[in-house]
Amino acid sequence: MTQSEFRYAHHPNDAKNYTTEDLRREFLINDLFLENQIKLVYTMYDRLIVGGIMPTDKALTLETIDELKAPYFLERREIGIINVGGKGKVTVDGTVYELNNKEALYIGKGNKEVTFEAVNGEQPFFYINSAPAHHAFPTKKITKAEAEIVELGDAKYANRRTINKLIVNSVLETCQLQMGMTELHEGSVWNTMPSHTHTRRMEAYFYFDLEEGQTVSHFMGQPTETRHIFLKNRDAVISPEWSIHSGVGTANYTFIWGMAGENMDYGDMDAVKTDELK
């Protein structure tokens, strides 16, 4: 079973007037993982699709949705998948890829049948991002050992973190989609700090590995007009190209970042000094 939602893009001047309820309705994505279901959110920000897939006792097939006006999901799209649960498998036009926890799979444009299954009674949680694609690149599995690893931050500022670049152009070719996973070290709670924006691409964040009963406050908005949204474990949030995307938790956590847009340069960002945020 597949359920899908549609989200419009927003002018930053409009977002300044949003209530907490408005912000959560427009940018927060919760309840991503539903038993034996595929949940997809299609956003007009670079037409990124954010989704969660939770197969339990049967295989789930990635089906097209009305917004695509396409005979199959990947006719004009690419997709990145990161498993944040137990072992699972993804079958792409007959080829099987087993994904352990925190392993990724990139699937290029033109693949017609994609199915998701649990393995040996384990419970996988497949988090996905999908973007429009103009060229067919090969399907590829990426483990953490194959990722480009970057260590950033400082325990002094509570932002020591390990960045795992999984689906980026330094690891494999894609059209525009980029995905990676940032793991905060114990005792560190701040991510993406100092903050930045990048008008060349939008972004989506997915927070997980958060201890039960804890929360993450995700900061968004223009650097001098910020807002916040409180998130729970396995919540996602849409970040417009005009918005910062930083967060702080009441405990350490992991998050997946996914980007789509016209620029593939990971370092292309407009930095904002921490003491200039408002």
UniProtKB/TrEMBL annotation:
<dbReference type="InterPro" id="IPR014710">
    <property type="entry name" value="RmlC-like_jellyroll"/>
</dbReference>
<feature type="binding site">
    <location>
        <position position="203"/>
    </location>
    <ligand>
        <name>Zn(2+)</name>
    </ligand>
</feature>
<comment type="pathway">
    <text>Glycan metabolism; pectin degradation; 2-dehydro-3-deoxy-D-gluconate from pectin: step 4/5.</text>
</comment>
<dbReference type="InterPro" id="IPR027449">
    <property type="entry name" value="KduI_N"/>
</dbReference>
<dbReference type="GO" id="GO:0008270">
    <property type="term" value="F:zinc ion binding"/>
</dbReference>
<feature type="binding site">
    <location>
        <position position="198"/>
    </location>
    <ligand>
        <name>Zn(2+)</name>
    </ligand>
</feature>
<comment type="similarity">
    <text>Belongs to the KduI family.</text>
</comment>
<dbReference type="GO" id="GO:0019698">
    <property type="term" value="P:D-galacturonate catabolic process"/>
</dbReference>
<protein>
    <recommendedName>
        <fullName>4-deoxy-L-threo-5-hexosulose-uronate ketol-isomerase</fullName>
        <ecNumber>5.3.1.17</ecNumber>
    </recommendedName>
</protein>
<dbReference type="InterPro" id="IPR021120">
    <property type="entry name" value="KduI/IolB_isomerase"/>
</dbReference>
<keyword id="KW-0413">Isomerase</keyword>
<dbReference type="Pfam" id="PF04962">
    <property type="entry name" value="KduI"/>
</dbReference>
<dbReference type="InterPro" id="IPR007045">
    <property type="entry name" value="KduI"/>
</dbReference>
<feature type="binding site">
    <location>
        <position position="245"/>
    </location>
    <ligand>
        <name>Zn(2+)</name>
    </ligand>
</feature>
<comment type="function">
    <text>Catalyzes the isomerization of 5-dehydro-4-deoxy-D-glucuronate to 3-deoxy-D-glycero-2,5-hexodiulosonate.</text>
</comment>
<dbReference type="GO" id="GO:0042840">
    <property type="term" value="P:D-glucuronate catabolic process"/>
</dbReference>
<dbReference type="InterPro" id="IPR011051">
    <property type="entry name" value="RmlC_Cupin_sf"/>
</dbReference>
<keyword id="KW-0479">Metal-binding</keyword>
<keyword id="KW-0862">Zinc</keyword>
<dbReference type="GO" id="GO:0008697">
    <property type="term" value="F:4-deoxy-L-threo-5-hexosulose-uronate ketol-isomerase activity"/>
</dbReference>
<dbReference type="GO" id="GO:0045490">
    <property type="term" value="P:pectin catabolic process"/>
</dbReference>
<feature type="binding site">
    <location>
        <position position="196"/>
    </location>
    <ligand>
        <name>Zn(2+)</name>
    </ligand>
</feature>
